[in-house]
Design goal:
The complex is a heterodimer of chains A (310) and B (221).
Chain A lengths: L3 E4 L2 E4 L8 E7 L2 E8 L5 E6 L12 H6 L3 E6 L15 H15 L4 E6 L1 H12 L4 E7 L13 H21 L11 H9 L7 H11 E4 L2 E4 L15 H7 L7 E5 L12 H4 L8 E4 L7 H4 L1 H13 L1
Parallel strand pairs in A: 5-6, 5-7, 7-8, 8-11, 11-12
Antiparallel strand pairs in A: 1-2, 3-4, 4-6, 9-10
Helix pairs in contact in A: 5-6
Chain B lengths: L1 E6 L2 E9 L6 E4 L21 E4 L17 H15 L2 E6 L1 H12 L4 E7 L29 H7 L6 H14 L6 E3 L6 H6 L5 E3 L2 H12 L5
Parallel strand pairs in B: 3-4, 3-5, 5-6, 6-7, 7-8
Antiparallel strand pairs in B: 1-2, 2-4
Classes of the chains: A alpha/beta (310), B alpha/beta (221).
Amino acid sequence: MEVSSEQGGERFVFDGARAPDRRRDVDAHGVRLAVYEWGPADGQPLILAHGGFDFARTFDVFAPLLAEGGFRVVSWDHRGHGDSAHAELYSWMADERDLLAVVDSTTARPCAVVGHSKGGSMLAHIIQALPHRFSRFAAIDGLPFRKPPPDVAERARVTTMAKEVSSWLEHRRVAATLVRKPADTPEQLATRRARMNPRLSSDWLRYLVGQGARKDDDGWRWKIDPSLRMGGFGPWRSRWATDRLPGFPIPLLGIFGTENEPMGWGVDPEELRPYLPAHARVEVLEDTGHFIHIERPQRTAELVLEFLQS
Amino acid sequence: MMEWLTHGRMRLALRRLTAADGPSLLLLHGLGERSPDDCPSVYRKWPGPVWALDFTGHGQSTVPLGGGYTAEILMADVDAALRHLGTATIVGRGLGAYVGLLAAGGRPQLVRGAVLLDGPGLAGGGSGSITPFLPTVDTRQPSPPDPFAMAELALDVRPPDYATFFARQAAELSGLSRPISVCACERPEWLAAVVCELGVEETNLAEALDHHQALAGQGPA
């Protein structure tokens, strides 16, 4: 089925993409979150969490496939992303609290959850904090793991972190005045995103412009809060989360690709396997990058539905 | 006199407690506290203006919607004050002591030493991995301080090697002799590790102020 959307005099279409069936807002302690639903309103809830610097409409192909399995698929734009409000502060804990607000607005019963990338890692943490709220978890390249730090001199590590701290502080000094660079056409904006998503087709990236960007007087720009910044530093260590995986409290499916790319996490499922609980199921899709559900939506949906219905 | 600073979408209150020519002293409060209205007597002899900053979510500074606090964001609050003051010596209580250490290491050319004192929020959320937990925030509590700040910054983990990174940065890049003074009795693991670093001395507040007064007179590195 072909569904198109229009914005700024442009038409956006992608084969298999379907706009959400319902759209609502959730007030997460004063931060407005844009929530989207696909599938029957009385279906079994299935929460879908996107990754960092993405937005819920990147599920426009994947979510309808899950909805065809009878689920009420619910996703939302993280604060500062997509159509959700830009916030004063951003943190992992705030994102998790927002996630819980979306779950609370959907169901009080234990529900199934699927997360990609950062969305999966957030879910891995909140499921262990509140195991009674969740029933099954599918992580699409979204399980926390970091290889041991490279064997470099202490001084080199210190220098790298010092640069990160200094660069981040400089960013904070100008964060209030930052504006995303506009593009003359949707195609230009799509080409720019291709640098971070080199494995995704130009047709798909152009479709995303129609859902995650807007046309201002001076051109097209992504809606994401310009004060957000990739990377960074902090006290938190991924291995703390990895070390807790053996005791993961609910059924777990991990789906991985094989190809590294700029937005990927470089997680090797074989390295992660010793940390997974005995009940965990691992699926590896060959010749697939970080955006597994976008590169192979049908196969990913099949795996998730089979896992949820088993 | 109050100066209003901008940090991201927040407005921060920077209060000048004394007016004098000379190096600036910047006071950082503890978790849940706010800047004092008057200059505490112990700082009256400081040979320059004494300032006090309200962190985000505290005192007269912006209370953001929906939380999202980290100690690093408060370090950037301090950086906003440094942008206004140029350079400053920092005296921090509790949470402000930890944030003062981060600022001293993050901006070693601008922070002319830091004095770390006991106070609310000194320990944070421990040294490392803790039981996954999402605090329920009681938004009926009087605000400020922002109940989200109280809940989130009490869980902020502080690995010792993370804290010592900032202590080493201050020691190596500030050009100052013993830029960090520890006057706290409470010794969470991060602070116990920091006192073992070169460039850190354990002392009392009066002696620390004498030491930092001398350092402040040395000018930028």
